[in-house]
């Protein structure tokens, strides 16, 4: 515990000047309107995702490995051994590499400035039919029909949404009977007795608005386990764990939840 606290103290001393400078910069951006902040966040995610930690890639590869065993409700996709996937909060498209060949991908994201990064990325995966981004939120994705997709994927999205319960309600709506939700999210510290400094910092950075301001609404103090349990799925398998993140900037989001829920 002392070692973890020392590392977090290092994180504070190293990144505080950068956080304050970024806060000042983003305050200026806020005065210029939300469009610039959306541009900033899209660029930031593009930059971060260019250098993905191999341990995280391995974790996600293992988590999504069961996608290949799913049989699509769509006869044409079954012939290709593909599935119909809806990804909510697609961002730059970092999950393409985990989807089965021949799959049909529908994507939703409220930030229009992710589109150019998403388009660049999907060119690398001609084995997947990917649609244009639907510029909307998971709460309001009326363009996705009822009982129309085999799988919904949500990764590192619910931390910044307005209503996670409504999104999960929509997920149940669009999934075919027996369809699955794959969710991988960072959550609030689930062992505050041991990692109390991280727990306090998560609460402070979220309630103060500093972290949401810097990262386009992202909150560090959320947990989605209870929301999953009450969403109406027939089965939920969920696990809380610490992601193998090593960079100081990411110590605040080490606590994670991974779950697969069945309609």
Automatic annotation (TrEMBL):
Q: Outline the extent of the Methyltransferase type domain.
A: 86-183
- Molecular function GO labels: S-adenosylmethionine-dependent methyltransferase activity
Give the keywords, sorted.
Membrane, Transmembrane, Transmembrane helix
Instruction: Answer whether the UniProt record assigns the keyword Kinase to this protein.
Output: no
Transmembrane ranges, per UniProt, are 12-29
Keyword Cytoplasm assigned to the entry: answer is no
Q: Which domain of life is it from?
A: Eukaryota
Protein name in UniProt: Methyltransferase type 11 domain-containing protein
Q: Which organism is it from?
A: Scylla paramamosain (Mud crab)
């Amino acid at each position: 515990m002392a070692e973890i606290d020392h590392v977090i103290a290092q994180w504070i001393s190293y990144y505080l000047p950068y956080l304050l400078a970024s806060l000042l910069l983003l305050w200026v951006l806020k005065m210029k309107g939300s469009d610039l902040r959306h541009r900033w966040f899209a660029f930031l995610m593009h930059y971060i995702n260019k250098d993905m930690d191999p341990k995280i890639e391995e974790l996600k590869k293992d988590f999504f490995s069961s996608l290949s065993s799913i049989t699509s409700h769509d006869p044409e996709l079954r012939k290709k051994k593909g599935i119909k996937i809806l990804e909510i909060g697609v961002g730059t498209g970092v999950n393409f590499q985990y989807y089965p060949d021949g799959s049909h991908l529908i994507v939703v994201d409220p930030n229009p400035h992710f589109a150019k990064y998403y388009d660049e990325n999907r060119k690398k995966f001609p084995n997947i039919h990917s649609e244009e981004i639907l510029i909307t939120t998971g709460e309001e994705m009326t363009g996705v029909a009822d009982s129309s997709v085999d799988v919904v994927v949500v990764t590192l999205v619910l931390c910044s949404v307005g209503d996670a319960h409504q999104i999960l309600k929509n997920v149940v709506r669009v999934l075919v009977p027996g369809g699955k939700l794959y969710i991988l999210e960072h959550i609030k510290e689930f062992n505050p007795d041991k990692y109390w400094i991280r727990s306090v910092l998560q609460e402070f950075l979220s309630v103060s608005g500093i972290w949401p301001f810097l990262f386009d609404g992202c909150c560090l103090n959320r947990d989605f386990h209870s929301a999953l349990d009450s969403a109406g799925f027939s089965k939920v398998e969920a696990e809380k764990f610490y992601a193998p993140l090593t960079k100081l900037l990411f110590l605040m989001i080490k606590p994670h939840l991974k779950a697969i829920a069945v309609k």
